[in-house]
């Protein structure tokens, strides 16, 4: 997915770069694993912020299926993830990136509206510090929830 001010997988091949990403991971699925692998491939280290339950509920209008503790444990077990945090900001700016030594902010988006929101949340970052990782079509936590309720 591409949009104004994005460069797709910009930053690819920047060996040694420290990459930051934030995720909900309501229900872990192959799309998440592919995202982690692609984000990790952008640099030498991947730190993932698992978004706290209250922020997920405010954003999605419902709490996540798995608790924060459960989601952190699952993300930390992924071989592509070097570190997990839970206290990252919603808006990612240069000061935050510099404070923690992150070189690149990686994120994905399922559709243009989500991309616009995510770009607005990192508007302070220059293009060279942003990477839009391609979204895995046909799989999402929402689709998994629908499968579960369909029985």
Give a brief description.
Residues 1-14 have low confidence and may be disordered.
3D architecture notes:
The chain has 151 residues and is of the alpha/beta class. It has a domain of 102 residues: Rossmann fold. The chain is 36% helix and 15% strand. It is built from 6 helices and 5 strands. Strands 3-2-1-4-5 form a 5-stranded parallel beta sheet. Strand 1, helix 1 and strand 2 form a beta-alpha-beta unit. The longest helix is centred in the N-terminal third of the chain and has 12 residues. The N terminus is likely disordered.
What percent strand?
Answer: 5-15%
Name the helicity range. 25-40%
Strand order of the largest sheet: 3-2-1-4-5
Task: Just name the CATH architecture of the domain at 18-119.
Answer: 3-Layer(aba) Sandwich
The backbone outline, from C-alpha atoms, is globular
- C-alpha-based Rg, rounded: 15 Å
Poorly predicted spans: 1-14
The CATH H-level superfamily of the domain at 18-119 is HUPs
The run of helices and strands is EHEHHEHEHEH
Number of strands: 5
CATH class of the domain at 18-119: Alpha Beta
Largest sheet: 5 strands, parallel
Q: Tell me the number of helical segments per DSSP (H or I, 4 or more residues long).
A: 6
Averaged pLDDT: 88
List keywords for this structure.
151 residues; alpha/beta; Rossmann fold; 5-stranded parallel β-sheet; 36% helix; disordered N terminus
Ordered list of secondary-structure elements with their pairings:
Layout lengths: L17 E6 L6 H12 L3 E6 L2 H8 L7 H9 L6 E3 L8 H7 L3 E4 L4 H9 L9 E3 L8 H10 L1
Parallel strand pairs: 1-2, 1-4, 2-3, 4-5
């Amino acid at each position: 997915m591409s949009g104004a001010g994005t460069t797709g997988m910009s930053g690819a091949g920047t060996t040694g770069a420290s990459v930051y990403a934030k995720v909900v991971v309501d229900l872990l699925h192959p799309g998440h694993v592919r995202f982690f692998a692609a984000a990790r491939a952008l640099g030498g280290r991947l730190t993932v912020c698992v978004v706290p339950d209250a922020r997920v509920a405010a954003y999605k209008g419902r709490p996540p299926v798995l608790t924060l503790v459960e989601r952190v444990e699952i993300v930390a077990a992924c071989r592509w993830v070097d570190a997990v945090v839970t206290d990252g900001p919603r808006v990612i700016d240069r000061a935050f990136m510099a404070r923690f030594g992150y070189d690149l902010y990686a994120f994905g988006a399922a559709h243009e509206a989500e991309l616009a929101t995510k770009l607005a949340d990192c508007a302070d970052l220059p293009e060279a510090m942003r990477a839009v990782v391609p979204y895995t079509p046909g799989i999402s936590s929402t689709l998994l929830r629908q499968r579960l309720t369909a029985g």
